[in-house]
Amino acid sequence: MSLPMRMSELSERSGVAVPTLKYYLREGLLPAGESLGATRADYSDEHLRRVRLVRALIDAGVSVAEAKRVTEALDDPPRSRHDLLGRAQYALPAPHADTPVSEEVMALLAGLGWAVTPDSPALHSLSGAIAAARSAGVPLPPEALRGYAEATEGVAAVDVANVPTDDLASALHRVVAGTVLVDPVLAALRRLAQEHMSSQR
């Protein structure tokens, strides 16, 4: 069992300045510590883990309001793993959220046989991303979209397999952190794979 820590130690261990920690507390991103008086409180390893997650989200470009939606989901995790995945995905910011879902995207998912809820923010994101790519001169023909989709199934299988099954709160934390922090890893791997494939030709 870990020993409680004061805010100064929480700051030192997390690398986040005390004024920023106080801001997180005021904004509800960080739960209050155990009160020791009017101006003192103890914090736990759970607080440390939360601070690191919030910092990672904000550093990745997630706004404070969006980060708060994520932490609210963490504080009230759903009971099933599937609902947990949805809660995590829906709490994160979605680019192109105002773009209507295209018939092409719905046809693509139907052809793949993917079970996706019709209110998934990712449907809007995909529709908007395809439109943006094409407007910039990247054609993205249907066979390329399907190829990308089929390749990402393997990535998703790894994601889902690595979600903890014993503690839903920890699982939600893993999904949120993994989605935000592993996306850059996948982008870098893609570029490295492109270089490799090009060298083979």
Automatic annotation (TrEMBL):
Pfam families for this protein: MerR_1
UniProt entry tagged with the keyword DNA-binding: yes
InterPro entries (UniProt xref): DNA-bd_dom_put_sf, MerR-type_HTH_dom, MerR_fam
Keyword DNA-binding: yes
Coiled coil: none
Key words, A-Z: DNA-binding
Signal peptide region: none
Residue ranges of every copy of the HTH merR-type domain listed in the record: 1-73
PANTHER family registered for this protein in UniProt: HTH-TYPE TRANSCRIPTIONAL REGULATOR ADHR, REDOX-CYCLING DRUG-SENSING TRANSCRIPTIONAL ACTIVATOR SOXR
Protein name according to UniProt: MerR family transcriptional regulator
Highest classification ranks of the organism: Bacteria, Bacillati, Actinomycetota, Actinomycetes, Micrococcales
